[in-house]
Design a protein that fits this description.
By secondary structure, the chain is α+β, with helices and mostly antiparallel strands. The chain has helices at about 10-20, 35-45, 75-80, 85-90, 95-100, 100-105; strands at about 25-30, 50-55, 60-70, 70-75. The chain has a 4-stranded mixed sheet with strand order 1-2-3-4. The protein has one domain.
Length: about 110
């Protein structure tokens, strides 16, 4: 029996393309929780927003966080709601903003 494929959200795909344009930092969490490791790395390195942090928990699991002016967010949330972040609005290509009604309505 064939499995039905999950539909991919256009808004999330657009958000993923935008996040690819943001600087990315890969770190290890060590003994800390992933969010704590990300916050400590941001404060020790003085990273300016916007930035994407990929925190490796163990050999199989990674967590992704987005560092914005407003704080630290889960990358999946930012992919779905990229139009809410002023620092990402400047990175949105003009072709994308015409297609998405949510982005056009938020301006």
């Amino acid at each position: 029996m064939a499995r039905k494929r999950k539909r991919k959200s256009r808004r999330r795909q657009e958000g993923r393309k935008i996040l690819e344009l943001v600087p990315q930092y890969n770190i290890e969490s060590g003994d800390q929780k992933p969010v704590t490791a990300a916050r400590n790395y941001i404060s020790s390195s003085g990273i300016a927003p916007p930035a994407l942090l990929v925190v490796r928990r163990n050999e199989h699991t990674t967590d992704r966080y987005f560092w914005a002016e407003k704080g630290l967010f889960g990358a999946q949330y930012v992919e779905e709601n990229h139009f809410l972040f002023p620092s990402l609005r400047s990175l949105i290509p003009e072709g994308i903003s015409e297609k998405t009604p949510a982005v056009a309505a938020s301006r």
